[in-house]
Design goal:
Elements (H helix, E strand, L loop, with lengths): L23 E14 L4 H5 L10 E12 L4 E12 L5 E11 L4 E11 L9 E11 L12 E9 L4 E8 L1
Antiparallel strand pairs: 1-2, 1-8, 2-3, 3-4, 4-5, 5-6, 6-7, 7-8
């Protein structure tokens, strides 16, 4: 059971909130909008034209799109500070903001991994596995402060389109 705790002697009546494990929170549909490379070309690396440097690689990938679920809906924008480790693992480190249809702001932090497509797979679809945590001062959405989320998704490397399904953990 989740309940809001008093903050600085002020109590907001929210009542108990119960979020069942595996409850569907929302779906994200985003597109990649920008890429900063740090010495290695993303295109060359992901197409196999260059080898991963011994120290790995770093990319900043900006994105924006929409999210929609049974309890909230709106727009999402953020950046993934992606690291490709020396062992080839794609380590995700995302900071984003959700803006709900009613104008409220929710910060979301996501980490996890990207499983690149097999080089011989012509579909070029990668898989995502994510952990999510939320922060907001909005009384309406304060229940999210107590929710740990998990997500799974797909990335189309040809188009830069990403779809993620997010659930309560």
């Amino acid at each position: 059971m989740y309940t809001q705790q008093p903050v600085m002697e002020r109590t907001v009546e929210q009542g108990p909130v119960t979020i069942p494990v595996s409850e569907h929170l929302f779906d994200e549909e985003v597109r990649l909008t920008g890429l900063t490379e740090y010495g290695v070309s993303w295109q060359a690396l992901t197409s196999g034209q260059v080898d991963l440097p011994p120290q790995g690689a770093r990319f900043d990938i900006t994105f924006e799109g929409t999210f929609e679920g049974p309890k909230l809906k709106g727009k999402i924008a953020g950046v993934d500070f992606l690291r490709v480790r020396a062992d080839g693992r794609f380590q995700l480190d995302l900071q984003a903001n959700l803006t709900t249809e009613d104008g409220e702001k929710i910060s979301v932090y996501e980490d996890g991994l990207l499983i690149p497509p097999d080089p011989d797979d012509e579909t070029r679809i990668a898989q995502l596995r994510l952990n999510l945590s939320f922060t907001t001062s909005s009384a309406k959405y304060a229940w999210l402060n107590y929710v740990q989320g998990w997500g799974r998704g797909l990335v189309d490397w040809k188009t830069g389109e990403v779809s993620v399904q997010v659930y309560a953990a």
